[in-house]
């Protein structure tokens, strides 16, 4: 907000004229009518306070040293304050300007669109891909719900507006060329219209082997692929056929063995530090700890995604504070 105290009557008139025309450019307004309602500069018009902000409501004239705010059109004022009232708090205006600046830097295609990909913030899974225009990206930033532009309907749509399976966006990323977007968020339910967790569940390698059969297999990263395998072994332990024997099944069927292995592997991991073993050994022992701990998670019915969510929620909290909160 720019403020000034101006005493010279001629300067007052010039400043008033400038502000009137600025206001006219910002939002169409009859500047002649506005000028007619302002008091003419004179010697008995000793001091004028002027405030200016880029986020305007219509200009108003307030009496100097008065608690009553008059409207434009009161020509009896001799001492006044001319201000541009803020439509929104300064913070909102600043954010709005930053969003506009961001939108200007995206390389939209000739149709004003960019690829928009939704990704699970905890699992890293690619949930879906759509397109976004300026309004869709702006809406996503303000609402924190993944919003896209439908090319077939020529309109915005928010994922979950009919199914309630919204994607709650935590952050938005642009690629190096600024022509594609990632919505990093947490889905409320299945993302795909088929009911699948994600829209990507058809492995190309399987299609190449047998084009006639479409295998339903989610695109999973390493830890989640391991979790899926462990859960399959768990399902086999309760089936009549029981499948092939495996170490995972033995662990699932023997709590004491599982817990002893977790303690053993954790101890061996610590020894790699105490005995200054090489990094490869540390990675190997950590892999053992993760595997056995994930078997325990499966046995307890806890998803790895739940663990990741807990870790994410701790990011903004001091480790000492977090431990103290658990004690209380």
List keywords for this structure.
328 residues, alpha+beta, Ubiquitin-like (UB roll), Helix Hairpins, four-stranded mixed beta sheet, disordered N terminus, Histidine biosynthesis bifunctional protein hisIE, chloroplastic
Sheet with most strands: 4 strands, mixed
Note the beta-strand portion. Answer: 15-25%
What proportion of the residues is helical, as a percent range? Answer: 40-55%
Which structural class do the helices and strands define?
alpha+beta
Gyration radius, rounded: 32 Å
The number of E-state strands comes to 10
- The count of helical stretches stands at 11
Chain-averaged pLDDT: 78
In spatial order, strands of the major sheet run 1-2-4-3
**Poorly predicted spans:** 1-5, 22-88
N- and C-termini, Cα separation: 47 Å
CATH superfamily of the domain at 94-204: Phosphoribosyl-AMP cyclohydrolase
What CATH architecture of the domain at 94-204 would you give?
Roll
CATH class of the domain at 94-204: Alpha Beta
Question: What fold name stands as the CATH topology of the domain at 94-204?
Answer: Ubiquitin-like (UB roll)
Order of helices and strands: EHHEEEHEEHEEEEHHHHHHH
What global shape is seen? globular
Protein name: Histidine biosynthesis bifunctional protein hisIE, chloroplastic
Family: In the N-terminal section; belongs to the PRA-CH family.
GO biological process, one term: L-histidine biosynthetic process
Catalytic activity: 1-(5-phospho-beta-D-ribosyl)-5'-AMP + H2O = 1-(5-phospho-beta-D-ribosyl)-5-[(5-phospho-beta-D-ribosylamino)methylideneamino]imidazole-4-carboxamide; 1-(5-phospho-beta-D-ribosyl)-ATP + H2O = 1-(5-phospho-beta-D-ribosyl)-5'-AMP + diphosphate + H(+)
């Amino acid at each position: 907000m720019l403020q000034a105290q101006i005493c010279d009557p001629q300067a007052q008139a010039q400043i008033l004229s400038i502000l009137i025309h600025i206001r006219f450019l910002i939002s169409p307004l009859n500047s002649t009518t506005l000028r007619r309602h302002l008091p003419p500069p004179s010697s008995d018009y000793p001091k004028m306070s002027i405030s200016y902000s880029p986020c305007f409501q219509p200009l108003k004239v307030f009496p100097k040293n008065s608690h009553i705010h008059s409207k434009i059109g009161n020509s009896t004022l001799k001492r006044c304050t001319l201000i541009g009232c803020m439509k929104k708090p300064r913070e909102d205006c600043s954010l709005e300007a930053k969003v506009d600046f961001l939108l200007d830097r995206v390389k939209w295609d000739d149709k004003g669109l960019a690829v928009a990909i939704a990704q699970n913030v905890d699992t890293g899974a690619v949930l879906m891909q759509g397109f976004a225009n300026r309004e869709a990206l702006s809406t996503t930033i303000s609402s924190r719900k993944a919003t896209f532009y439908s090319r077939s309907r020529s309109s915005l749509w928010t994922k979950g507006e009919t199914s309630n399976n919204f994607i709650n966006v935590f952050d938005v990323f642009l690629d190096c060329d600024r022509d594609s977007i990632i919505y990093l968020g947490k889905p409320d339910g299945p993302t795909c219209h088929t009911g699948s967790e994600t829209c990507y569940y058809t492995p190309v390698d399987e299609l190449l082997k047998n084009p006639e059969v479409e295998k339903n297999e989610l695109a999973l990263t390493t830890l989640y692929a391991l979790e899926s395998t462990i859960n399959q072994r768990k399902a086999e332990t309760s089936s009549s056929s029981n499948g092939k024997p495996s170490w995972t099944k033995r662990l699932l069927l023997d709590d004491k063995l599982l817990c002893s292995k977790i303690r053993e592997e954790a101890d061996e991991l610590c020894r790699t530090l105490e005995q200054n073993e090489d990094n490869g050994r540390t990675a190997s022992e950590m892999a053992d700890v993760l595997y056995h701990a994930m078997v325990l998670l499966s046995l307890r019915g806890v998803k790895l995604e739940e663990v990741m969510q807990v870790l994410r929620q701790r990011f903004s909290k001091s480790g000492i504070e977090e431990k103290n909160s658990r004690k209380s």
